[in-house]
């Protein structure tokens, strides 16, 4: 039997547990190490989906690690409850280890890979620079035609950018984003499906996963009181700001989709104003998105470094900044639609929207898609017999 000193040394060594036949990145080695320790403790088993998934495994291959990393919601509950957390010699920090692997998966599954690597290193700078460059290009195009500061537009932005021109500008970028996201998620899904029983998705599993996504179930800390602040206090602020951002985005998307139906099906041409349904949805979504992203920015900037991966902050903040710019510029465009500033506000809004579309597959938006896929596989896997239970073969 090993001595206590030998066990401590093994627990502190990321290479002590992983299979020598499989290549691991340093980030994957660390998750493998901490999950092996957690599997022997299991104090946090009821906290979130990660720990029930952990108990179904004795070894953690890269596919298992990628799957569990995207199950993790980074709520911090396990870190604040862990008896082996730093400064203990085992130095177990599950949220941070999982966050580093998540960032790795965003790059690893990105298509094309080069764009994923570029955005992961320079997310905030790239997002702001791209939005500014696109807005400046549009401003120059409008200015060259003498339309930058006009008082006779009466809110009709199609006088500046015809509808077909806008479709020609945005459709290719949006379709590319959908293609890139689809290819990345397909690769991720194909990797984690065999590692999560391989059983196909059924209706009960899909219903449970959908509920978990829409309610952000695993941001409740496992007890309903929310995530932990750095001072160990519980808070539901992350869950609430995520909800405001998520549903604000959906409302804005619904407004745009409905406006498309109005245009092509009924021939009702924009701009629309209150109390039209597209405008109601757009205003509600814009306000919700503004509040949600402002809150998430504050939480991201003030959260303790031990709660996540500091190298991932530029990616997180880049996505938050673009959503904030879109919501604020959209509301400003509505409020200033009858002023000479219409053209300038429209260019700023369109630049931010196009920058968001271009970066969707490589930023924080991708994590929502990957997490949904992981939750869906978890809902399938949990309904199968536990392969490492005492009654298992």
UniProtKB/TrEMBL annotation:
Protein name: Citrate/tricarballylate utilization protein
Transmembrane segments: 124-144, 164-185, 244-265, 277-297, 317-335, 341-362
Sorted UniProt keywords: Membrane, Transmembrane, Transmembrane helix
Record organism: Paracandidimonas soli
Record bears the keyword Transmembrane helix: yes
Keyword Membrane: yes
